[in-house]
Amino acid sequence: xxxxxxxxxxxxxxxxxxxxxxxxxxxxxxxxxxxxxxxxxxxxxxxxxxxxxxxxxxxxxxxxxxxxxxxxxxxxxxxxxxxxxxxxxxxxxxxxxxxxxxxxxxxxxxxxxxxxxxxxxxxxxxxxxxxxxxxxxxxxxxxxxxxxxxxxxxxxxxxxxxxxxxxxxxxxxxxxxxxxxxxxxxxxxxxxxxxxxxxxxx
Length: 202
Known about the structure:
The protein is an alpha+beta fold.
């Protein structure tokens, strides 16, 4: 079960997930401050574990998870590694509601907090699937969970890209925030670019 949870977390954050305070400093400005909670990019797994006050709920070579809470919203805190270097981290919100519009309320709570911490976002959009747009705001939450509407907000400071996402699939709303190292992303892209093409016939 723990292995499944770790894989789900990694996949969910892979869509590209916020660090809110939760008792931890999470600013990502240049000048030596933390990248995520009490960590900086490139830290080892042991250094990351030492930065947290509690034992992890999941511990695999590429993902370490903890439980936490932001603004009363339960969440999974996750650290993702490439080798033994921290390259991504984020929050996967665990709120569960009968009224799907509550997921949008949670999204806005987190976004407002991030704006106070990191300023005006570089990108803030609400995107409808083609032909699915509705005018009744009371139906927006239902549209999100149905995969017809997606909310995305992005911040960038030269060191870290922060991406908050709210989207749906199979009738379920998913809300997460990813912090990702800019340096790692650039290096990864260069590695991929330099790889030879696969053999023909594959």
